[in-house]
Amino acid sequence: MKNSKKLKVIFIIERILEMQIKKIGFDLDGVILDNTTFKKENYKKVYNLDFDNWQLSANIIDEFVPDREMRRKIGTLASARNFTKLLDENCIETLNDLNKKNYELYIVSRRGLSDNGQKAAWKSINELELGKYFKEIIFCENEKEKIETIINKGIDIFFDDRMGVIEGILGKISIPVLFDSFDLVAKSIIKVNDDFKVIKNFKEIGDLIKENE
To answer: Residue 44's pLDDT is what?
Structure first.
């Protein structure tokens, strides 16, 4: 009887440990790196169109730039661009804190479609000295591959600015989180699934992870 109780306690402890957050993943563009400033500048340069940065964010750009070829052209330019501006001033501090707590950190990005995209991404990562914070940096060719990678890697929390990615991993990982840096959900500019967890900056990322420690 005692052995049976002991085994039950061990099983419960193992289950608790399995539920603890160990692996944390991040998208690159639109979460760690600012990519809307480049798009804004190039819509002006190429098409003489003026936009605010938020209008060019992933979940709403179709409404303001309905022309698919225009989006594709600027998107192609952006995908091969070396961005050296962090989206959030608290990014490095948060990554450093998580690193010190021995979380495994991952970047899973869609910059894998072309060699130029990967080279530009690596240049950004190296210039900003981001590589030291991450266990692995993975570049995928499309959204489907990205979703599969996040799930197969066993990532517990993933932060992405695209609703399509969050919808794809919802119910498949512990905590999918929409990174809404322009606060469009709170402003009712975009609507999301009630099951979505939404945060808007890296301070909130730190707070969310503390809540789940």
So the answer is: 97
Asked if 122 and 64 sit in the same domain, the reply is no
Query: Quick check: 208 and 83 in contact, CB under 8 A?
Result: no
In the sheet that holds 104-109, the strands lie side by side as 136-139, 104-109, 23-26, 157-160, 175-179, 197-199
Q: Are residues 146 and 195 in the same domain?
A: yes
Q: Are residues 149 and 73 both part of a single domain?
A: no
pTM of the predicted model, to two decimals? 0.88
Residues of the chain by 3-state class (helix, strand, coil), percent to 5: 50, 15, 35
Compute the distance between CA of residue 25 and CA of residue 108 in angstroms, rounded to an integer. 7
**Contact indicator for 166, 64 with CB cutoff of 8 Å:** no
| Whole-number Cα distances in Å, 48 to 43, 72, 76, 77 | 6, 16, 18, 16
Q: Evaluate whether 167 touches 193 at the Cβ level (below 8 Å).
A: yes
- By the 8 A CB rule, do 85 and 33 touch? yes
DSSP class of 29: B
Considering only CA atoms, which of 169, 166, 194 is closest in space to residue 179? 166
We report the CATH number of the domain holding residue 198 as 3.40.50.1000
Residue 98 lies in domain: 21-34+85-211
Segment-wise mean pLDDT, segments of 10 residues, the chain, 213 residues:
48 46 95 96 97 96 96 91 92 96 96 86 96 97 97 97 96 95 96 90 93 80
